[in-house]
Amino acid sequence: MEAEPVLTVSELHAGYGDLEILRGIDLAVEPGVTTVxxxxxxxxxxxxxxxxxxxxxxxxxxxxxxxxxxxxxNRQLVNIGLAFVPQGRCNFPRxxxxxxxxxxxxxxxxxxxxxxxxxxxERFPLLAEKRSxxxxxxxxxxxxxxxxxxxxxxxxxxxxxxxxxxxxAPLTLISVLDEVQAISGQGVTxxxxxxxxxxxxxxxxxxxxxxxxxxxxxGPGPGMLSDPRLAELYLGGAxxxxxxxx
Length: 246
Ligand SMILES: Nc1ncnc2c1ncn2[C@@H]1O[C@H](COP(=O)(O)OP(=O)(O)O)[C@@H](O)[C@H]1O
Ligand SMILES: [Mg+2]
Hints:
Layout: E1 7-16, E2 19-29, E3 33-37, H1 44-51, E4 56-64, E5 67-68, H2 74-79, E6 82-85, H3 97-104, H4 110-123, H5 125-129, H6 140-152, E7 158-162, H7 170-185, E8 189-193, H8 197-202, E9 206-211, E10 214-219, H9 221-224, H10 228-234, H11 240-244
Parallel strand pairs: 3-8, 3-9, 6-7, 7-8
Antiparallel strand pairs: 1-2, 1-4, 4-5, 9-10
Helix pairs in contact: 3-6, 6-7
Bound molecules: adenosine-5'-diphosphate (ADP) and magnesium ion.
């Protein structure tokens, strides 16, 4: 680990009501892409939700640039530079692409929103082209790009993104993961959950395996692919096929 962590998770315990899912997670998220993989039910989504204040944190801390995030409101989290793209499509399908971006910009002033949206149109020409179309009419991959653009409207330092490739065809999946990598190349630190371990780790500088609410393994992203412990952890897990195939 060379760089300073941007986001630091320490001894995090979190869950829902009395149900503890995360049982002491430590994570130092550095600039670039950090990918979290692991079997279904491991607690990957819960980790992102806990960081974003959407799961109940019972112990431990989450810090962004030295600021403790526990007990901050969603709006405060956004204001200090955190953005979250939850699992699944979460745009407003019966609103235009442009209106979706405006909705995402609601914490900004009118002027800030206009500037931010126009720079996103330059960054994602596809969205500029489709600005008047209903979000629900875009393809799955295009909608995922829209979700990312919506999260970027507030110019976050850290982007949390949960399974951006879910349900996408193989080629679309690759272009969406390339887009995630490009976003990190522009200085946004990314913490991503992905089922496509091989494709995701190849584009990550750090990889983390969660299992049963604990960190089972971590290491440099691409290097992890050849780590025999990865295959071992996945044996019997839902993602065995994915790790095994190209
Ligand atoms: N809102 C919720 N209320 C109660 N239990 C939940 C909730 N969301 C997820 N869980 C449980 O938490 C565990 C971890 O879920 P999740 O973090 O979504 O796993 P993953 O994303 O790794 O597949 C699962 O057992 C799941 O059933
Ligand atoms: Mg999940």
